[in-house]
Design brief:
This protein is an alpha/beta fold. It folds into two domains: 122 residues, Response regulator (Rossmann fold); 96 residues, Orthogonal Bundle (Arc Repressor Mutant, subunit A). 40% of the residues lie in helices and 21% in strands.
């Protein structure tokens, strides 16, 4: 059965073009023209992913993203790919901090949308069968690939699906310095062009979740001019 995608966008021409392109790729697309309609659709039907425009007539995509992640329902963990026409990178950073897994600036190539969409979906689809789905232990920190959960002192820490995948990739290569491009390749499984500091934003959010002092990280360490290294030896 083909995967169902919810596209929340108030531009009927763009929505039709995206729907047709994704349909040719084997997806079934449902279009919602507003944030409220999108949230209502999510509450009624199961979807494999959400493609969410930032600019909507009733509420912006940031608010939709926030409500989705805060919902006490199964759809709260749906992969979110955000579309934005705004030039301000801060909107994209805020979207990532609210729980979006990825974003794509408008105008975009449909094939890049398809590649990014498949990437966020693939991470969830292979969660239970990935070779790294066991439990990685680093002192008081446990990274449980099977449960898609990071635990500090036995307590689950709040991470989005993308952030967990990023943490798992870093931990699987503990002790090695990884560039941002390498991290993106490991997490996405696609060689996609890096975009405005998204890795840095996600690392910051992960540090908030797993570090004792996020301002003085001892688990995920920044290597200036190179990238990040996940510490092998931890308390």
């Amino acid at each position: 059965m083909s995967a169902r995608i919810l596209l929340v966008d108030d531009d009927p021409r763009l929505a039709e073009l995206v729907s047709e392109y994704l349909g040719q790729a084997g997806f079934r697309v449902t279009i919602a023209p507003s944030g409220g309609a999108g949230l209502a659709q999510l509450a009624r039907d199961p979807f494999a992913a959400l493609v969410l425009d930032l600019m909507l007539p009733d509420m912006d995509g940031l608010e939709v993203c926030r409500q989705v992640r805060a919902a006490a329902a199964s759809y709260s963990e749906i992969p979110i790919l955000m579309l934005t026409a705004r030039g301000d990178a801060m909107d994209r950073v805020v979207g990532l901090e609210l729980g979006a897994d990825d974003y794509l600036p408008k105008p975009f190539e449909p094939r890049e949308l398809l590649a990014r969409l498949r990437a966020v979906m693939r991470r969830r689809h292979h969660a239970g069968t990935d070779p790294g789905s066991g439990v990685l232990r680093f002192g008081r920190l446990e990274i449980d690939g099977g449960a898609r959960e990071a635990r500090l002192d036995g307590e689950a820490r709040a991470l989005t699906d993308y952030q967990f995948a990023l943490l798992q990739a870093l931990a699987a290569h503990a002790g090695r310095v990884l560039t941002r491009d390498t991290i993106m390749d490991l997490v996405k499984g696609e060689q996609l062009q890096a975009f405005d500091r998204s890795i840095d934003v996600h690392v910051s959010r992960i540090r908030q979740a797993i570090e004792d002092d996020p301002k003085k990280p001892r688990r995920i360490i920044t290597v200036r001019g190179a990238g990040y290294v996940f510490a092998k030896a931890q308390d």
